[in-house]
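agent> fetching stored inputs for the glutathione docking request
agent> found them:
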Amino acid sequence: MAEQPKLLGALRSPFVYRVIWALKLKAIPYEFIEEDLTNKSPLLLKYNPVHKKVPVFLHGDKPVCESMIIVEYIDEVWPQNPLLPKDPYERAQARFWVKFAEDKGTPVLWRMFSSKGEELEKTKKETQEMLQTVEEHGIGEKKFFGGESIGIADIAFGICCLRVGNH
Ligand SMILES: N[C@@H](CCC(=O)N[C@@H](CS)C(=O)NCC(=O)O)C(=O)O
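agent> prediction call returned; pasting tokens
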């Protein structure tokens, strides 16, 4: 039997949940290794020497870093319950919203959670505008970004809800 993949993570890291969700949606058994980010393990430093951050996905002894790159990798290796559409144009659209989540969605929301006073009013407004953009142009009348089933853009944005849930 092939060795289970391993996920180096920390359950307080929102980025790690993207990988957990992808693995769960595809019903892939894996081993979770909890990292102490205040005292990083030799395993983390070995497998993510560039950023030294979680998540790191270990497939055999091959490490993959960066949450959304890991999600795409998992989708390519385990094609059941696909997270990216087959159609090239729809794939481009899904990647557009993943990039939007990375560049704009999560940074705007998290700035709001850590701001106070006047800055909070400004970041609240930015967050409302960002969410309105997602509603109008990303999801529209659909259930998920890609239509009727959860896809890669939903996974990218999902951590916004996690953050909300933590506050
Ligand atoms: N862009 C990365 C971000 C990962 C990240 O920021 N991970 C944090 C935990 S939330 C981390 O490992 N921080 C440790 C550090 O900065 O030293 C991804 O999407 O995987």
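agent> quick read of the result: Residues 88-165 form a domain with the Glutathione S-transferase Yfyf (Class Pi); Chain A, domain 2 fold (CATH 1.20.1050.10).
agent> awaiting further instructions
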